[in-house]
Design goal:
The chain is an alpha+beta fold and 160 residues long. The chain folds into 2 domains: 2-72, no CATH class; 88-153. It has helices at residues 2-9, 31-39, 41-51, 88-102, 143-153, and strands spanning 13-17, 20-24, 70-72, 108-115, 118-125, 129-136.
């Protein structure tokens, strides 16, 4: 427990969240202690795994005085990640941006979809940005309102 003892002696409390070390209070961290933590991270994680969280009596909780918690990150080799599944919003944003790229003469593109009781209008404006606008179903009285909304954002093909 020598690595943890050194940090506790410095008045620090160390906990692990997965492979991340949380050290508090951050105001007591020096560059030397940060380097020590980075160098001894595997040992610290192992010690925390054996002892659980061993707070030092000298450590000040993060809530006292607003000193906060520091996360000491250590660069590790990148692990391949499974790609996040594409959401309907992601698909709509990709679609309107592709329309703008494919048609340099248009200034905006949109698409609509119904989702969770609301009409979602995904609108892209060239050189401005992309946004989703949610209009609750109860705010659209009939198809005339829907058609009016489509005309407001552009022609029925979703390009303007």
């Amino acid at each position: 427990m020598a690595a943890l003892d050194r940090l506790h002696a410095a008045g620090l409390r160390v906990t692990a969240m997965g492979d991340t070390l949380l050290v508090e209070p951050r105001t007591r961290l020096t560059d030397e202690l940060r380097a020590y933590i980075r160098q001894h991270k595997p040992v610290l994680l192992a010690e925390l795994g054996q002892s659980g969280d061993r707070p030092s009596p000298a450590a000040t909780p993060a809530t006292d005085g607003g000193e906060g918690v520091a996360t000491v990150a250590v660069a590790e080799p990148a692990r391949p990640r499974d790609p996040e599944p594409e959401t309907p919003s992601d698909r709509a944003r990709r679609e309107v941006l592709e329309r703008l790229r494919a048609n340099p003469q248009i200034t905006r593109a949109f698409t609509t979809r119904w989702e969770a009781g609301a009409l979602i209008v995904t609108l892209a404006v060239r050189d401005v940005g992309v946004c989703d606008l949610a209009i609750p179903r109860e705010r659209i009285r009939d198809m005339a309102d829907y058609a009016e909304l489509l005309m407001l954002f552009g022609n029925p093909e979703g390009q303007a």
